[in-house]
Amino acid sequence: MAGSQIEQWQEPELQGDPAVETAAAAAAITLAPALAPLPRPRWQRRLAIALGLGALGGFGGLLWWVFLRTPPSPYVLDISPSQSEYALAQGDSPRLSWQVSHPRQVQTILLRGYAPDGTLAYGPETYDLSQGLPVNLLPYCDQARRLLTCRDVPLDLRQPGQYRFELTLLPDMGLNLAPVRAESSLVTVADLPQPRVVELVPDQVIYSEAGTQVSDSNPTLAPAVTDAGIRVSWIVANPESLQDLLLVVKRPDGTTLGGRRFTLRNPSSPSPVALPEELQPFCQIQDRLICQGVPSGMVEVGQYQFELTPVPTNLGDRDLPAAKQSEVVNIQPRPVRIASFTINGREAEPKYLVPVEPGQSIPGFQVAWRVEGGSTAKVELLPSPGTVGLQGALSMPLSPAGTTTVTLRVTDGQNPPLVRAVTFETFNPRPNQPVIINQGGGSPNSSGQPAPAPSTPAPAARPRDPLGDSLRDSDSTSGSTLPELQNRSPDELDLKF
After folding, report:
1. In the sheet where 346-347 sits, what is the strand order?
2. How far apart are CA 185 and CA 163, in angstroms?
3. 216 and 176, same structural domain?
């Protein structure tokens, strides 16, 4: 009943309204079964397949890159010196440039230098790249992801010769890659020119002994040597290659007396040549080393010859350069002089006549001397006691033989000696004493001969004074002196010593 009412209510509306009929027709078309789609073109299907395969391959390639790919090996793109020749004389040292690919795969770089015969001459120099560029390469290198570039890296190489440098790359241990090596072209390091002594001269060839008084009255005397001793001057070419200077002092016969070493460069580092403190007041370095008036300390009397030898840097097994010798220098002794030579306090005469009466003791005398001279002066009193000091006094007896000669001999060791001699000659002042005969006669003696008259007694002897007039007259001959002395009394002779 209800259903019929609905149908009754709807049906007249559906049948009578044209708009409703149109909407119903459209709905009927929509709810009808759909037709089968048309097939897609073949190229679209192939493109879809290709895209799927590409995506799958890209994913697989990514997995291979991350987990299965072998990393690229590093290698040396270039290694070359900045120039083929270097001159040690100009302070140059070899410089090397290189390029390395994939530096992140490199843990260590080794740099070696070899002589042409294969002998290791430099290095190995080690650069650790595990933490990035080392500090000693930062000023010379730039590192990118795939390239390490180093330019003009200086090498501490001061030995002359020819070298070929080798760069070795040691990859990271985890990569399990073999080392990579590359060699540079040949590099020549020119030797420094050898130092050479051009001139070695003493400031004077003749000196006088220290303390010698040189005056206008002695124009032949050379200037006296000072406490600095003999001074020498020299000129050395190519001083930039000097290590040391050896100054040796010898005798003319080759005997070495001593020497000095002047160090001009620190042997433990390649520092430039510099004057030592003891040479600074006397020398200067320009293109040559010029030294003037260098004191040697040689002050003793004698003959000397100097020898200067330059010692170059990097001498190695090579022989020393030739030494330069100076001419012979002579230090002459101070001239000797007999300042005084006295007998009994008076200046000595060449000859003395000493009266000695028969039965009387032979007197003695006192000789004194003073000599001026230097360290080589030698004084002798002959025949005895021989060598004595530069001054002194001695009491000496006269010889019973009748003649005594005392000689003072002074020498400086080089020049002829100075000699002063004194001769003492004893004589009897009364050689012909008369015998007085008694004129009145006398009683005969037991033999029947008359007894001789007693002789007149001789005057009593008086104390005699020190050396007097007879010694001052001793330069006269004995023939002219004896009669005069014979007529004098002992008091007047004044010949007691």
Report:
1. 346-347, 337-343, 364-372, 391-397
2. 9
3. no
Using an 8 Å Cβ cutoff, are 423 and 352 in contact? yes
Residue 422 falls inside a structural domain:
yes
Q: Is residue 352 part of a domain?
A: yes
Asked, for residue 63, whether it belongs to a domain, the answer is: no
Answer yes or no: do 418 and 396 share one domain: yes
Token pair, residue 179, equals 């080392």
CB 110 within 8 A of CB 174: no
Range list of H helices, 132-227: none
Q: Which residues contact 413 (CB under 8 A, 6 or more apart)?
A: 301, 333, 376, 377, 378
Instruction: Report how far apart, in Å, the C-alpha atoms of 82 and of each of 186, 249, 376 are.
Output: 11, 48, 68
Confidence of residue 460 (pLDDT cuts 50, 70, 90): very low
Residue 476 has pLDDT above 90, yes or no: no
Q: What one-character DSSP code corresponds to residue 132?
A: B
Residue ending a domain, among 155, 190, 225, is 190
In angstroms, the CA 185 to CA 83 distance is 10
273 vs 279: CA distance, rounded Å: 13
Nearest to 204 by CA among 194, 214, 217, 191: 214
Q: Are residues 172 and 204 in the same domain?
A: no
Question: Tens digit of pLDDT for each residue in 121-150?
Answer: 888 999 998 888 888 888 999 988 788 999
Q: How far apart are CA 393 and CA 65, in angstroms?
A: 118
Q: Which residues of 252-265 are buried (b: 16+ CB within 10 A; e: fewer)?
A: eeeeeeeeeebebb
Is the pLDDT score of 18 beyond 80? Answer: no
One domain, residues 276 and 315: yes
Q: Is the pTM higher than 0.85?
A: no
Residues of the domain holding 101: 76-190
Q: Among residues 226, 249, 257, which one has the least CA distance to residue 326?
A: 249
Q: Of 77, 162, 168, 181, give the one whose Cα is nearest residue 126.
A: 168
pLDDT band at 41 (very low <50, low <70, confident <90, very high): confident
User: What does the alpha-carbon distance between residue 7 and residue 11 come to, in Å, rounded to a whole number?
Assistant: 6
Angle among Cα 364, 369, 373 to the nearest 5 degrees reads 160
